[in-house]
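Suppose you are handed a protein chain with no further information: no name, no annotation, nothing but its sequence. What can you learn? This example shows the usual starting point.
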Amino acid sequence: MISVHDHRSVIMLLPVLLLFIAAATTNTSPRLKHTLPDHNTKRVPFQQVEQFATTLLEGQTVYIGGNGILYQINFDDSSTPNEIRLPDVPEKCRGQNTASCGNYIMVLQRFDENKLLVCATGSPYSRCWLSHNGELKEFINGQKRVLGRFVLPSPPRQGFASLVVEERIYSAAPFDGDKMVFDGYRKNDDIKRLRADTRWMNDPRFVGMSPVKDLIYMFFRERISQNNPDVDPWISRIARVCKDDHGGSPRRLQMKWSTFLKARLLCNEPNNVHFNRIEDTFIYKSAVDNETRVYGVFSSNWNGTAVCVYSMKEIGDVFKTSDFKDSNGPVPSNPRPGTCVKNTKELPDEVLALVEDHPEMKTLISPIGGRPLMTSYDPHIKKIVVDSVVGPNGEENRLLILAMGDGTIHKVLETGTSTFTIAQLTVLKQPAPILSLSLDSDRKLLYVTSTMELARFPLVACEEYVGPCATCLQARDPYCGWDNDQKKCIPVTPNSKNVVQNLTSGDGCVTIKAEMARSSAPRDGTVLRLPLNEGIPVYLSCPKQSYHADYTWTFSGEGGREGAALFVQ
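A reasonable first move is to predict its three-dimensional structure. Written in structure tokens, the prediction is:
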């Protein structure tokens, strides 16, 4: 048995052969690579390819919105999903296999305690239902019509986002050709719903929405006017409105958002490499100090991707204190434009005028540390969720879980302003694009939705680190630590006793050198002899315990020998 110690070299002395192990110089690649076994992974294949599968995780139940069908899956009860069929699409679309004739569920949200909101693209217009106990009832709006048109894109398209908070529906969908607006509708509000002014956003592509206290934040990229082909025509934005926004006065912004503000999100390397296109977001709230962070995935027009992290407090300060871009006049202070008030219809005209004409903040929002937390060029980063792990020392550690463009999952430890990639996981039975990640942080389970299947697997896998203490600690997995009593790698909790964990360097084993020396020789203490015969191939297995190390066989201290055939697996 050979033990591998990262950042060191180990030589196994043999009469005939030598195995040389040296550390690689970078930790940006995964240290370990695993294909998850079937017995540890729950799966449900879809009946058809679901190009726009929408996922909602509630407790132990997962809802998947597909083309004309709503899947309800609870792996703890049954591996067979409960299926709810949507009403048929119009006669003219039957038999056609086009996106415009599909009935894709693109809004799937909890509406109230008992009902789900389900909206599908349909044809020619989208439609919404309230689902309760497997039954669908059309959602009737204040105009006595079925809600759906302008709530989501029909035909379906990327760059759409939706959210339901306190029975209010927020959506960003195409309107008036290729224009997109940020829209809001509440069942007991005025008959008409609020819309954004078309001047506020230029051809936006939304990637997410999130409630934070009394605000709704939205993330999108929008096109800027550029005639230079070497300049990325996109920039990334964060915008917000107040939950209790009821529109402006009869004189200005009536039936439009009266608290809409936006700012530019920067994600760039100091050498001026810019990642201008936001692709995905995750809002992280600390369980220890209530700090809220925004994790964003960005791409560049130079084929790279990055993760940038922002402080929600700093974002809030920008909206509270920044000057308004392209506005030369004074900023009203009673109230400041964008401030949440009891009745927005009574806002002064000068406040509404600034929101209407100059809603953008002059101050740019930079990431924590002033640069990306990590970058990846091959494969690309596509989706992100972040888990919180409190170790035996009481410190909170953050684990980034990334869906990559090659269909794998990366577990990445955040260490200050840098990262360490713990492992690459092959989860899917059938290679396919990953559409969403859903995290059950309480039970440490991850749900992965692709166009072909739903898969669930545990994030805690300390049994993978078999061997001495060094094997456990050098994994730098925040879920695991070395138990000195049991002499094995075990899951950690804040109450773990006599458990060693070092996520900074992977060191901490008291007898690490002695352990490695023992593990580098057969357990019975004898010397392993591998005599070679001329002309006879010898196959040497070389299991990789770390992809951060280099493995090389040599013959009698040399790289090879004429006439001897050595094949390394």
